[in-house]
DNA sequence: CTTAATGCGTA
DNA sequence: GTACGCATTAAGG
């Protein structure tokens, strides 16, 4: 945020042309046929700009009719341009009228172009040291960028400062005119050097700085292109002049005298009515709501989006007849790429029955194909068999791209009908996640609100909620049809907004294209295959725990002298701290005496009751979460447990797992291990678990480039032992278990962005000692310290950090004035590149493993689970050794780091043994 | 019936 | 001190 409000100079003409060419805006017109797409586009852009810069002083600038000084310089200027189409021309006057009625100052100066007026105003602002933002879709304006002048393309929300210009064009803003002159411009008919494109222009300017420099050295340039340059020398000054935006246009008013006026709501209302601008009319009637500071803050994270998709008529069709279906199938095939969605009876993909399909090929052009609505007097629908037989080829066609929202679900459902979804082209959930993993939840309703400013029909709106909620097959087809068609429609529109955003960043795009999207079918296969659970073993364990819990309860009640609920912290407080008069060690944030684990641990040394409570808590949790629950989650059909892996949940890029969560199965306690024993291999198979050893520390070594750390890993040392030797300044062989434990705590702590305070607590040592350890660590591994400081700084500067592969994690709290929150965000900034890179790596490994499995096509090997740094397989015992060896190799070679990547394996009859 | 707070399982 | 999901209780409607 700049201190005084910036001037926002809007290149209205460039937006007008761009909006006119946006396909889905071209459909817009009033009922009597007056086109309004370009008007809508420009006004939407303006609305978004206002939201981004609530304090900005907006000045609208348009080209005037007729010739300009450039035509005097060069009669051929823009001679190749076709005349303005009538359906655009007729939108100009209404747009001007609306903008005037809105109260914006508007400049239309004859004899010069909008660019020149903007250049002049920007120059005036800069002279006064005022900030200026130029809103334009025209890249030529890059020549105006300075320390005080930035560009924003409000249609794509890309901003550009001096560094941005260098990044985008490869030359500085002050070289842009030279750059444009060299290249010339076909559309504007500006001559340049034949065959000189951006690459050549940048090359020359990098070497010779300016156009004059290039011309002076023209003799040195070899080949045909050198000849072309020499042939153009005469012309180049003219090209330069034509490409130069004026900054000294004579204006009637000075910048300071240009002021906005009050909106003329009556005129606006009549104009909005005349041109049927319903959304603006609604805004007007609601009283315009100023954008909040919070909105502005998120907008500045360079991730807020421009809703251009509003006010689009939607034409939703419900397909009942075979000829209608055939027509749609032709349309879908011709489209080459369509949005699609399934409607089913359940969120559980194993149990879900298909109720209908929906598609969209253009925004607003969508259809719903009902097949399984079975309420009383439901209209007759096409049969499932007919529909699937016609759709199977389309859905399995690699070359026919599908756009979906969470396509993994649809793929899983279709799999139940023997359809293997292929041509998974885009998934809007993953697009949103790769673009910004923390901005919203990535469900369709949230995305539509955020990115399209559109409120969708929610499932609850048509199905009801709570126990009375209907399943989709019970819902009235008309209602269901609108909902379903909208789903496909909105998915398509979201894709049209999100994809261009994602494409702006090559790295983010690559995370989507090379990691997340290909991982989708891999996860789908793992989910479908499921894991085998020994229910009898778990039930047995449940019984045992139940008995033990009863014993504990009786004992606890005896000590307390009364009956109470052991799992109620509140009742426990009363018993422990009031009735038993046990001293209060720690209080909860709200001031109540804490009964947290660590408190009870300490009290357990002196009192019997806390010890019982601890055991009770542990066992009760184990029983309810795992031993009772897991057997209930076995699918009746497959006899296995099918989790859901969520690909768009975590901020860092990890997967998460639910229903059940297979990523938090106990491992440490004895009782916990029993649960892993229940994850068994099928007959004649083994469970193989392969996990990455110290992956996050290895990544820290890679990212920090610290020689000591790199060396320790290169030599295959026990990293905690090596660290201990360094910190305590002793020989490797003299490292005791205690030393190693301390070093391990430091190593882990560093990954979490820990402070000396945290370390002291972890190790139970004084703060000063902890600080000494850390100082010593950083002294021995200075690269790590530098890396941490740089990461922190980077996070502060750009508001996000990146993984090795370009996954981006935004940290909105990094700008918080609340010290604690800011600190927490900084710790997250330290952790995210390491945790996130580890997530990227195992995802890449899963892709490599899956690729190999696909080639082998051997049903005796299945990848069944992922637990962050570990992959679990079921492998037939005949081939288990060789396959495991191969899998370890694939995981080791999944990526190349500056340190070796080591995967370790275990083989057993169950998951516990395999560890 | 939903939500927040607490506690605890994993990497 | 990072990142999650789930069970439970208690409070709000």
UniProtKB/TrEMBL annotation:
Keywords: DNA damage, DNA repair, DNA replication, DNA-binding, DNA-directed DNA polymerase, Endonuclease, Exonuclease, Hydrolase, Nuclease, Nucleotidyltransferase, Potassium, Transferase. It catalyses: DNA(n) + a 2'-deoxyribonucleoside 5'-triphosphate = DNA(n+1) + diphosphate. Transmembrane segments: none annotated. The keyword Cytoplasm does not apply. GO terms for biological process: DNA-templated DNA replication; double-strand break repair. Belongs to the DNA polymerase type-A family. Single-chain monomer with multiple functions. In addition to polymerase activity, this DNA polymerase exhibits 3'-5' and 5'-3' exonuclease activity. This is DNA polymerase I. The lineage of its organism: Bacteria, Pseudomonadati, Pseudomonadota, Gammaproteobacteria, Alteromonadales.
């Amino acid at each position: 945020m700049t201190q005084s409000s910036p001037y926002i100079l809007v290149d209205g003409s460039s937006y007008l042309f761009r909006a006119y060419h946006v396909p889905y805006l071209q459909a817009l017109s009033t009922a009597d046929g007056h086109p309004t797409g370009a008007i809508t586009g420009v006004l939407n852009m303006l609305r978004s700009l206002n939201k981004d810069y609530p304090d900005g002083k907006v000045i609208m600038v348009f080209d005037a009719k007729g010739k300009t000084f450039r035509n005097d310089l060069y009669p051929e200027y823009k001679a190749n341009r076709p005349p303005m189409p009538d359906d655009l021309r007729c939108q100009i006057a209404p747009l001007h009228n609306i903008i005037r009625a809105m109260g914006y100052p508007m400049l239309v100066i004859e004899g010069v172009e909008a660019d020149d007026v903007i250049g002049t105003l920007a120059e005036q602002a800069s002279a006064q040291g005022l900030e200026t933002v130029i809103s334009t879709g025209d890249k030529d304006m890059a020549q105006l960028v300075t320390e005080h002048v930035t560009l924003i393309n409000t249609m794509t929300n890309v901003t550009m400062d001096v560094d941005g210009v260098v990044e985008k064009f490869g030359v500085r803003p002050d070289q842009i005119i030279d750059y444009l002159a060299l290249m010339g411009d076909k559309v504007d008919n500006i001559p340049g050097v034949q065959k000189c494109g951006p690459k050549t222009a940048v090359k020359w300017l990098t070497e010779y700085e300016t156009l004059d420099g290039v011309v002076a050295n023209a003799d040195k340039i070899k080949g045909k292109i050198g000849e072309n340059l020499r042939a153009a020398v005469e012309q180049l000054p003219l090209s330069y002049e034509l490409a130069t935006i004026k900054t000294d246009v004579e204006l009637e008013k000075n910048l300071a005298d240009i002021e906005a006026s009050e909106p003329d709501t009556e005129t606006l209302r009549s104009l909005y009515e005349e041109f049927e601008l319903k959304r603006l009319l609604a805004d007007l009637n609601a009283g315009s709501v100023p954008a909040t500071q919070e909105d502005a803050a998120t907008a500045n994270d360079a991730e807020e989006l421009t809703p251009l998709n509003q006010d689009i008529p939607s034409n939703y069709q419900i397909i009942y007849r075979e000829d209608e279906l055939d027509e749609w199938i032709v349309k879908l095939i011709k489209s080459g790429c369509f949005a699609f969605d399934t409607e089913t009876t359940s969120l559980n993909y194993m149990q879900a029955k298909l109720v209908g399909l929906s598609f969209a090929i253009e925004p607003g052009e969508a259809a719903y194909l009902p097949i399984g609505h079975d309420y009383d007097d439901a209209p007759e629908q096409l049969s499932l068999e007919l529909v699937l037989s016609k759709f199977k080829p389309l859905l399995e066609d690699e070359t026919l791209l599908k756009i979906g929202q969470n396509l993994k679900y649809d793929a899983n459902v279709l799999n139940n009908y023997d359809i293997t979804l292929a041509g998974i082209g885009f998934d809007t959930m993953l697009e949103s996640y790769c673009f910004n993993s923390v901005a919203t939840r990535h469900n369709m309703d949230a995305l539509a609100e955020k990115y399209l400013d559109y409120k969708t029909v929610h499932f609850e709106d048509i199905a009801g909620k709570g126990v009375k909620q209907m399943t989709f097959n019970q819902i009235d087809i008309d209602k269901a049809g609108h909902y379903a068609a909208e789903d496909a429609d909105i998915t398509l529109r979201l894709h049209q907004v999100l994809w261009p955003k994602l494409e702006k960043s090559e790295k983010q795009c690559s995370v989507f294209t090379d990691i997340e999207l290909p991982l989708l079918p891999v996860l789908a296969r793992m989910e479908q295959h499921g894991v085998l659970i020994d229910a009898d073993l778990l039930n047995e364990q449940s019984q045992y725990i139940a008995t033990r819990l009863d014993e504990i309860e009786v004992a606890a009640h005896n000590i307390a002298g009364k009956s109470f609920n052991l799992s109620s912290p509140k009742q426990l407080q009363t018993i422990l701290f009031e009735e038993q008069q046990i001293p209060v060690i720690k209080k909860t944030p709200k001031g109540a005496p804490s009964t947290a684990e660590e408190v009870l641990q300490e009290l357990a040394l002196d009192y019997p009751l806390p010890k019982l409570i601890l055991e009770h808590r542990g066992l009760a949790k184990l029983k309810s979460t795992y031993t009772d629950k897991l057997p209930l989650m076995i699918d009746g059909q497959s006899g296995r447990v099918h989790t859901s892996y969520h690909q768009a949940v975590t901020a860092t890029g990890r997967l998460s797992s639910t229903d059940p969560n297979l990523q938090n199965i106990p491992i440490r306690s004895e009782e916990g291990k029993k649960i892993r024993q229940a994850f068994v291999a099928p007959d004649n198979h083994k469970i193989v678990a392969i996990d990455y050893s110290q992956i996050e520390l290895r990544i820290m070594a890679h990212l920090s480039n610290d020689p000591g750390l790199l060396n320790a890993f290169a030599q295959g040392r026990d990293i905690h032992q090596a660290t201990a030797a360094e910190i305590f300044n002793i020989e490797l062989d003299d490292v005791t278990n205690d030393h190693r434990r301390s070093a391990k705590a430091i190593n882990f702590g560093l990954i979490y962005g820990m402070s000396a305070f945290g370390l002291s607590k972890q190790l139970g040592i004084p703060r000063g000692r902890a600080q000494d350890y850390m100082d010593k660590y950083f002294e021995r591994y200075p690269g790590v310290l530098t890396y941490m400081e740089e990461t922190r700084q980077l996070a502060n500067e750009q508001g996000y950090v990146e993984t090795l592969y370009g996954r981006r994690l935004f940290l909105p709290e990094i700008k918080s004035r609340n010290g604690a929150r800011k600190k927490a965000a900084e710790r997250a900034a330290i952790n995210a590149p390491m945790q996130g890179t580890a997530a990227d790596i195992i995802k890449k490994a899963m892709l490599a493993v899956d690729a190999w499995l696909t080639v082998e096509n051997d049903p005796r090997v299945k990848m069944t689970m992922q637990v962050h740094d570990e992959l679990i397989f079921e492998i037939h015992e005949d081939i288990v050794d060789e396959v495991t060896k191969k899998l370890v190799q694939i995981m080791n070679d999944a990526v190349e780091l500056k340190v070796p990547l080591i995967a370790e394996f275990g083989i057993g009859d169950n998951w516990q043994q395999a560890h």
